[in-house]
Fold this protein.
Amino acid sequence: MIQLEHVTKTYPKASRPSLDEVSVGIEKGEFVFFIGPSGSGKSTIIKLLLHEVTPNQGRVVVNGRDVTSMRSWKIPNFRRSIGCVFQDFRLLPNRTAYENVAFALEVIGKTKAVARRVVPEVLELVGLGGKEHRYPHELSGGEQQRVAVARAFVNRPLILLADEPTGNLDPDTSIEIMRLLDRINRTGTTVVMVTHDSNIVNQMRRRVVEIESGRIVRDQARGVYG
Amino acid sequence: MQRLKYVLSEVLVGLWRNVTMTVAMIITLAVSLAMLGASGLMYLQVNSMKDFYYDQIEVAIFLNNDVTDQQRSDLDNALKSDPLVAEVIYESKEQAHEKFKTMYADAPDLVNAVKPGQLPESFRVRLKNPEQFQQINDKYKNNEGVETIVDQQRLLDKIFNILGSVQNMALLAASIMAIAALLLVGNTIQVAAYSKRREVAVMKLVGASNWFIQAPFVLEAVVAGLIGSIIAFVGLFLGKLFLLDGSLRDLTELLTPLSWADVLLMFPLMAGVGALVSAVTAWVTLRFYLRV
């Protein structure tokens, strides 16, 4: 599903590479944690997979497509097969939960009728039934992140990328979000999560890839943080 | 349909959100386009005047007071068989005086002061190509009985030169205003892109196509360009109505009249230039401020 082959990424003006000759493969339906201290390069992986940055060396293959050499006009379509969740939720403050999710559908050309059918369903799935018409500031942090997950999942993407999704949440809420991601993973969606939340990694007992100074130092099938 | 509605409502919201800047942008665009339209009209005008007057201008060969009949008929024959000449008309002293009287009918004192016979007789020569005056001049200036040879084209050229430089000045002013207008368009688009950065970030994230992200911004600029060209057209329309057909009527009648069709013709020019230039500016701005 996802292949990184000898990927090196050095940001302009950086003294050392963020990722240094990294090779890793992720199968369809897997749930993988990328862990490591701040600045270890784990977030760069998400950016590479989204084609927000391109590697200096090596190949990134997602869903059988070489992202590295992808034409820029093909990127939008490519991104529709990937859902994405961030630490800061990235919701539109002037739109309700329903409108935030519907917006993601409308801007890729889905009709209002499709949105009316699909959005309540996915909001129900993430546990926000009855709160569709609340604005982000009327929702708790955990609920806002659920909206973000709903938006990422509404297109039924093959891959869900999560960049520190629990970074702004308290431990109990974090665990609820993790249950949600786990449920999404069980529908067959590949989940790639970048985190440094040891609690969560230890509870989930999923594959752990540890990165330090741009290199993979550990890759364990049912790992813990630590 | 859905997406078109979205894009159009975004355009209106975008123009309204920053209404002072939008107004400034539209006014500069309008002034710049009006200048462009005016210089376009002047260009058409100068061309039609050239066609009109160059067709009528003649070379006047004035004869000496003591010219003999022999000299006159020799010159007449020479001119009539000259391949450069299209037409020769002889104007006697009496005819010259008649013409003088009608031309200066407003000034009877002047007319009375000039007696018949004081004005020289002349050959009025129309050339096949008005540019060939020099050859005619060289050929006939030393003929017996010729006083002077006058080229009316020189006079017209002076007028056309003045019109030409007025036109150039209008074009220069139009380009300077255009630079200001383009900077304003760029700035407006930048502000619009900034105020919509969250939406744009989400759109990129969920894979909205580039044209869909950029279209509202580009269309915003195009709409401003079109509104500017409409205002510029109204300006030209009023200028023709009140200036050329109004207070400057006498001057207009002296020159060839400016037709409404020509004024109307400027509208597609201004609208096209306005819309296209704004769209390109917006698009280029977006390439810098909205990396997709």
The domain at 65-144 of chain B is CATH 3.30.70.3040 (Alpha-Beta Plaits).
